[in-house]
Amino acid sequence: MAARDETPADQPACPPAGGGGLLPGELRAWMLLLAATGAVEQRLRCAVKESLDVSHDEFLILCLLAEQPRGGLRMTRIAELLGRPKTRLTYQIACLQRAGLVTRESVCGDKRGVEVALTEKARRRLREVSGTLAETVTQALARFVGPEQREALGALIPGLAENPYEP
Question: What's the pTM value of the predicted model, to 2 decimals?
Answer without folding.
Answer: 0.75
